[in-house]
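Whiteboard transcription, Tuesday session. T.W. wrote the structure tokens on the left side:
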């Protein structure tokens, strides 16, 4: 199979373009049309409960659009019928058009430990919970007749929560998020349009084909590991599917300078002439999900240190890489001090080989924009990291 050759710089620009980072942020008011465009570009928004700065799914929109109304995003994701939540790349917000492609995962779901114990030890309980969702939904666990008590052997969850999560995993119920990030559970036909639910589920191989082509479009170019990771697909299965897709011309086999593995290019991918602009990237941004890929594209080693003991952390608790004109040039440990309305920079580190003054000035501007978006009155920089002193002066 003939393989097209790409330079490392071309691959990086393709990836940035595919993720929406080679077009200027829009001017004027941000509305649902912009949200749709970003979601079409990246495919899904990963959810995460950590709220030290802001919920993770709000940040990719900010990175690509600039300041926007988070309440407007909530209304769109929860009430438009255009989005559903499921296990995509972890828990994710996904366009409803992809619901049939995820039904194989719902159908193949096997009870995990706590769900299995609940099925064995309380026969009929899960069905009674489903009946209550169907009759009363949307509901939270506390709305159930018998939610049970938290604690015991099931990771602190009440039995009602385990029942709802098992029903959610099987696709028998769906959910949307409350402003406090809790799930409200509801039967699918009250959230997902009937014409979507009426479609036949894609069989496993066809679902893989659909999701892998999607992943290639969102990545631009990627290895088997990159593309299978996007929707958490089984990599050995994905390899054979990708080879078949390349044989059909739906993907283009490529070799990328410096990459040890062969890769696949989406046929519609373009090589932008240049990358410009700034963005602070959530640890859960789709551009940087796959850490090995981040190193290949940017020469940037990135690990989340949330679960690392404080004294062992290198860069900080909630560290956001800083993208400047197509390169990852710095990283900042951020925290929102909501009580005192301050955006705290707990540490700021420069990547080797970059102009510290230029980076500090651009980063200061982006931090001030973020602070305004988060309704913070000021940016405060702690004296930790080799970029901190310059950033402190640039913030003013």
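and on the right, the sequence the group agreed on:
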């Amino acid at each position: 199979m003939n393989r097209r050759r790409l330079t490392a710089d071309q691959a990086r620009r393709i990836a940035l373009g595919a993720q929406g980072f080679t077009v200027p942020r829009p001017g004027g008011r941000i509305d649902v049309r912009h949200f749709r465009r970003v979601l079409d570009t990246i495919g899904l928004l990963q959810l995460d409960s950590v709220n030290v700065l802001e919920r993770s799914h709000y940040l990719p929109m900010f990175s690509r659009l600039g300041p926007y109304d988070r309440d407007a995003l909530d209304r769109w994701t929860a009430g438009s019928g255009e989005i559903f939540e499921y296990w995509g790349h972890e828990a994710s917000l996904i366009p409803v058009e992809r619901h049939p492609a995820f039904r194989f995962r719902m159908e193949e779901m096997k009870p995990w430990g706590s769900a299995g114990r609940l099925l064995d030890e309380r026969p009929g309980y899960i069905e009674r919970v489903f009946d209550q969702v169907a009759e009363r939904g949307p509901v939270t666990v506390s709305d159930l007749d018998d939610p049970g008590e938290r604690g015991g052997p099931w990771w602190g969850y009440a039995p009602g929560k385990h029942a709802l999560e098992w029903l959610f995993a099987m696709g028998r119920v769906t959910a949307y998020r409350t402003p406090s990030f809790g799930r409200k559970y509801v039967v699918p036909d009250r959230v997902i349009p009937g014409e979507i639910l009426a479609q036949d589920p894609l069989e496993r191989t066809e679902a893989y084909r659909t999701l892998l082509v999607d992943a290639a479009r969102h990545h631009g170019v990627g290895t088997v590991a990159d593309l299978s990771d996007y929707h958490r697909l089984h990599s050995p299965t994905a390899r054979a599917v990708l080879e078949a897709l390349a044989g059909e011309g739906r993907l283009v086999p490529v070799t990328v300078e410096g990459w040890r593995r062969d890769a696949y290019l989406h046929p519609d991918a373009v090589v932008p002439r240049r990358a410009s602009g700034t963005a602070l990237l959530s640890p859960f941004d789709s551009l940087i999900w796959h850490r090995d890929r981040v190193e290949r594209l940017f020469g940037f080693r990135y690990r989340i240190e949330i679960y690392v003991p404080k004294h062992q952390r290198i860069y900080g608790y909630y560290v956001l890489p800083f993208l400047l004109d197509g390169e990852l040039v710095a990283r900042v440990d951020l925290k929102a001090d909501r009580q005192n309305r301050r955006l705290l920079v707990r540490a700021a580190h420069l990547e080797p080989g970059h102009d510290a003054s230029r980076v500090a000035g651009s980063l200061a501007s982006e931090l001030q924009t973020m602070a305004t978006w988060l309704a913070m009155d000021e940016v405060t920089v702690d004296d930790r990291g080799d970029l901190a002193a310059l950033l402190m002066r640039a913030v003013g």
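Someone added at the bottom: The mean pLDDT is 94.
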